[in-house]
Description:
Number of helices: 11
Strand content: 15-25%
Distance between the termini: 70 Å
Number of domains: 2
Helix content: 40-55%
Number of strands: 13
CATH architecture of the largest domain: 3-Layer(aba) Sandwich
CATH class of the largest domain: Alpha Beta
Largest sheet: 6 strands, mixed
Structural class: alpha/beta
CATH topology of the largest domain: D-Maltodextrin-Binding Protein, domain 2
Radius of gyration: 21 Å
CATH superfamily of the largest domain: Bordetella uptake gene, domain 1
Shape: globular
Amino acid sequence: MKRILLGTILAGIGALTATATLAQDYPWKPDRPVTIIVPWAAGGSTDQMARIVASELETELKQKFVVVNQPGASGSIGTKNAMEAAKDGYTWAAGAAVDVGTYGVLGLLETGLPDWRMYFAVANVNVISANPSTPYKDFGQLLGDLKTKGDSITVATAGLSSAGHNFMESVRAADPAVKYKHITYNGGAPAVTATVAGETMTAAQLLVEMSEHIKAKRLVPLAVQAEKPVMLDGYGEIPAVTKWLPKMPAPLNYFGIWVHKDAPPAVIQTMDAVWKNKIAKSDALKKYSDSRAALYAPIYGDEARNEAMKMVRYTAWLYHDGGKSKVSPDTLGIKRLE
């Protein structure tokens, strides 16, 4: 019996040792804290995702990953700081890939997806919700007023290149009679909070940023930008905007972290392996996705860039056709999405 017990203990110690060794058996072993710049205010969708990812990376690489919020200029300030930092793998940016892909079109920052090595965690769904004090209980009611008195209807978003602004411009492209009064904030969380407080009538942002307010009945969800209704755990079904605007596209909006393409090869090799070994099996990210009606999407590298380009192509030309672009997408090699 003692031999069996001793053998079991030794086997357990061996397994723990092997696990510890495996966790550190990567080409890159960061010897100081790694910074992840979130170019939006705390509490929003990017901040939520980045903090879970940072925790998972800390567990795997045995080093601190520090999330720093640097909001401003539709996320381009924080992204610029990450882009201009030393290309040593110790400074990353976070956010929605579509922002990075369209900063050049908007004239905010000279960059694009090819400048970065991308690692995604989730894909998020856009939603428009109303303060309960408004008369809007479904999107059809709001759409009618947007077409007749839109200049007086306030819509809160996180700014020019935000998911909410993209949603509203998609609505306007699908029905040119639509107008709205755009009220911008330094992130999705402040935009949503403003609508909850009654500063604005509606908020167009990501469902992950509104889900808890919706469940608590502080917001009334009107429609999601999706091809079919979305089920929010703890609330129920939210109808798709295509119920009212059948031809409105709904490409996936990928969120994650990224490092400059010129980072050392050992950094990129390590993060590729970590994404496969840890992030692709993350219970924390799965739980987050399920509770907030996001899509768990742990993809990276060429696959991530190719998938993200679908949203970039759609959004870049949406801006251009709507008169919002400073630079034509085709001059940046961004083809129109067929």
